[in-house]
Design brief:
single chain; two-stranded antiparallel sheet; mainly alpha; 7 helices
Length: 183
């Protein structure tokens, strides 16, 4: 989901775009197939880091899963993605602030919406997520620091997977006559 991209009007400088804003805007735009695909991509990218944040806040594995799914449901239900503005900062900062606000409301209301309902979610393996969470070193990271760390690791994993796919798709490497080069 990340790649160096050329800025508009910039002929030589490159920046590392962490989340494609076209994906975010498409996900929040409408109920088209393209918007659904973009939304699924965002959910796959951010589900684990958000779950790790919720768990680090002290919630049980089951509650962590419920709260993470409920957060995505609320994000969709209230159409918060339509209010995202690139000029106001990073998308992950928006997402983390929205999650913190959501958790505060859930704690105050003492009511967690259960997974499922009227929304279709990207499938996640709860046992794998909890097993992965238990392998995170118990260093003195705040929930916010853990979110940032796990978001970066998820991004790195996706980038490596994409590079592997591109490498495999390019076929076997060309054989070269290295002898001629050195003679």
């Amino acid at each position: 989901m990340s790649a160096p991209s050329q800025s508009e009007g910039d002929t030589g400088a490159r920046e590392f775009t962490t989340t494609h804003w076209t994906v975010i805007l498409s996900a929040g735009r409408d109920s088209s197939a393209q918007a659904s695909d973009a939304l699924a991509k965002l959910c796959r990218t951010y589900w684990w880091p958000l779950y790790a944040f919720v768990r680090r806040q002290g919630h049980s594995p089951h509650d962590g899963q419920d709260l993470t799914q409920a957060f995505f449901a609320r994000l969709l239900e209230k159409d918060y993605l339509s209010a995202v503005d690139r000029s106001k900062g990073k998308f992950r900062s928006f997402l983390l602030a929205a999650l913190e606000h959501f958790l505060a409301n859930e704690w105050r209301n003492a009511h967690a919406q259960k997974r499922g309902g009227q929304f279709t979610f990207v499938s996640t393996d709860a046992e794998t997520a909890e097993g992965q969470y238990l392998q995170v070193p118990a260093v003195n990271l705040s929930p916010q620091q853990l979110f940032e760390q796990q978001w970066a690791m998820t991004l790195l994993d996706q980038t490596l997977a994409r590079l592997q796919e591109e490498f495999i798709a390019s076929g076997p490497p060309r054989t070269r006559n290295w002898r001629r080069r050195w003679e």
